[in-house]
Amino acid sequence: MKKYVIIVAGGSGTRMNSAVPKQFMELKGKPVLMHTIEKFADTLPDAKVIIVLPEQLTNDWKALCTKHDFSIAHELAAGGETRYHSVKNGLVLVPDACLVGIHDAARPLVSKETILGAFETAEKWGNATPVVAVSDSLRSVRGKENTAVDREHYRIVQTPQCFHSDLLRKAFLKEYKPEFTDDASVLEAFGEKINLVEGNRENIKITTPQDLLLAEALMQQH
Amino acid sequence: MKKYVIIVAGGSGTRMNSAVPKQFMELKGKPVLMHTIEKFADTLPDAKVIIVLPEQLTNDWKALCTKHDFSIAHELAAGGETRYHSVKNGLVLVPDACLVGIHDAARPLVSKETILGAFETAEKWGNATPVVAVSDSLRSVRGKENTAVDREHYRIVQTPQCFHSDLLRKAFLKEYKPEFTDDASVLEAFGEKINLVEGNRENIKITTPQDLLLAEALMQQH
Question: Does the CA dihedral B204-B207-B211-B215 come out positive or negative?
Answer without folding.
Answer: positive
